[in-house]
Amino acid sequence: VVYQFAAGSALTFDWWGKDFVFTYDVSFGVAYIRTTGSIEVKIYADGVLHHTVTTTTGFFRIPPIRAHRWSVRFGGTGTVHEFKAAQTMQELKRAR
Asked: Exposure of 51 by Cβ count < 10 A (0-12 exposed, 13-18 middle, 19+ buried)?
């Protein structure tokens, strides 16, 4: 029997990342995602859904809110290769 991996159409997924906890309140204002396909991104602040966006590869804004615990949930049929969030666009560009 021969098996082929990474073949066929992508399956639907729902992935929730770990909590990132800071010792002080942080306000993330921008994010960058690199994907194949369209991905739904849900951003949680202190355990509460704060922002939802459906996007493809690129930058997007996060509405301002201060929280000390952040997490991200991805869903869709594409593949997420990279995700970064920062307080400002300049900070995010330096992280590249």
From this structure: middle
User: Which of left, alpha, beta for 46 (phi over 0: left; psi -120 to 50: alpha)?
Assistant: left
pLDDT of 14-68, one tens digit each?
Answer: 999 999 999 999 999 999 999 998 999 999 999 999 999 999 999 999 999 999 9
User: In the numeric block, which tokens belong to residue 73?
Assistant: 């949930």
- Determine how many CB atoms are found less than 10 A away from the CB of residue 85: 21
- Residues with Cβ within 8 Å of residue 90, at least 6 apart in sequence: none
Token reading at 54: 């459906």
Tokens 């909590």 locate to 19
